[in-house]
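The methods section describes the discrete structure representation at length, but only in general terms. Since the whole study asks how a given chain folds, the encoding of that fold should be made plain. An entry of this sort, consisting of the sequence and the corresponding backbone structure tokens, reads as follows:

. . .
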Amino acid sequence: MSSNKKKTANKTAVPESKPKVLSRLDEKSKLRLQNGVFISLMVAAFFFALWKTHYGYRDYDETFFLAIPHRLSLGDVMFKHEWNLAQMSGFLLLPFVKLYTLITGGTEGIILAARIYYTVLHTAVASYVYYRLRKYGYIALFGCLLFFLFSPFDIMAYSYNSMALDLLVLSGVTMATTSYEKKTPLILSGLAFAGAVLCSPYMLFVFVTYVVCVGIHHLLKKLGRLPNVVLRSELFSIKTALWFTVGAASLAVVFLIWLLPRVSIGEIFESVSRMMSYSRLKGMTFGGRVNSYFTSIYNMNTYFPIALGVYGAMLIGMIIDRNRRRRAALYLIISAACTIYSLSLMLEKSEDVYFNCIMIPMFFIGLTSYILCKEKTKTIFASVFCLGILYSFFAFLGSDQGIHIISVAFVIVNFAGYIFLAQLIKEMVGKFDSSKLYKGTLIAASVVLVAALGIQFGVQFHNKRTHCFWEFGIDTLDTEFTQGPAKGIYSADYTVAKYNEIYNDIQSYKNMKSDNMLVLYSNPWVMMALHDMKYSGYSAWIGDDRYTSASEVSQRLLDYWEVNPDKMPKYVYIVKGTEWDKNTLFGPFVGKGYTYSENNISYKMERTGVQ
């Protein structure tokens, strides 16, 4: 009798193990297929982006991003010689600029090379985060693709905006998905976060916020009162914070070792004080900036408050609804409808230089999905979703770009939102409910969600395909730059003609190496084109005549040369056609031993004596 029971048990044990093995094989097959789809799409997206790097050129911001590390590579000192608040991001680009100029012997073609550099690294970041989040399925894949397609202000080059975005996604996703027993990922996460702080210094307050959360976690844990909320996670343990801080401190130490032998702490504070006094944000109180943050979002579009009102009312109802998961499909339908409506409002701006606003509406779906999930991805909520929200606020505090810089940060928020949506869909599909109402709302929610995601992808892809670095109509960009920093890029014929005019005009300075030169022009590429000439201005970007008057420029230059008398220029080059008053710009040089000449392109001065 006992023997028969054993035989029966053995017989039943074998069939039970087969489905598990088959299930594991099936999961592996599905993951291999998903990985294959991702690789195929990313390879296509990479070559598409690589093709796009050759088109479109505006010589304002993009050349400024390279001009700061360029002047540093020539020996100028951060804070002492450069008076722009965004300068610390130049430290991260300095190795690229130094290596490029070392290999090529100059700056010819450096702008295109910087775009390719960005494309390669941005692809690597998107691929890395997919690897960390691939268990969430095709929606995670979709989120990674949308992340890759976005470049702040559609400038496909590294800047304090785009570098911060990549570094924060790297840091946040790593912290959210790692085992907190492993030290290396935590150190690398801290290292990436420190890089983001160099791009956006106000992000230092996010680190302070994290430390406070760690303290609360430790205190509640010690008291035995740690609730089942996000603070319960080992993400906020002292051990995790310690290794994260080690990573962040490593970059900070390297930066300070590089900086402090060149400039004193006193000089740094004095320089920052001057820069703050020049900022267009001076005089604004903290309370005023906080109010401006929320009003910037609210007033993003005349009709956007309607979407906020509808979603806000639904959000309150959803939070107080004790059976909200039973009505999850309905709440998703409303959220997706708000997203589609908001995206439709942004379409008129989708091809504008300030197209970033199209990244905000997906917030509705992301927040709803997180609230409705039964198994909440709390670490992703804390270190990606909340990180994106905090970045949007602190980046806003240090920028005059308003809603446009807020929108950039929402790319990180959206990224987390796609993971929440993937988790929620998994729970909803796995739920057994045979009622026609449930099935009907589930189908309706699927249709509306697909429409929202499809519109988001369509707008981003269309923009990437047609909008070129602040120029419109890719079909009109058929003239190639054949010389100087912009070599290899295609633009409109009149843009190339103007560039060539100035480039040919400055060739007379080519053999005057190591002399100080001041270029009074709002486009920093001129100094890069001269390569070995030393920058003589208070910044690699002197200013824009739309915002900075000639009298302001003149006064800043006089202040700068008073602090740095060795930076008084040997040569002064002023491009004609600016709205600046040339007579005011000449003011700092009158009676100081400068000779003067002009042609139809520029005014030129040379110091041949002293006062």
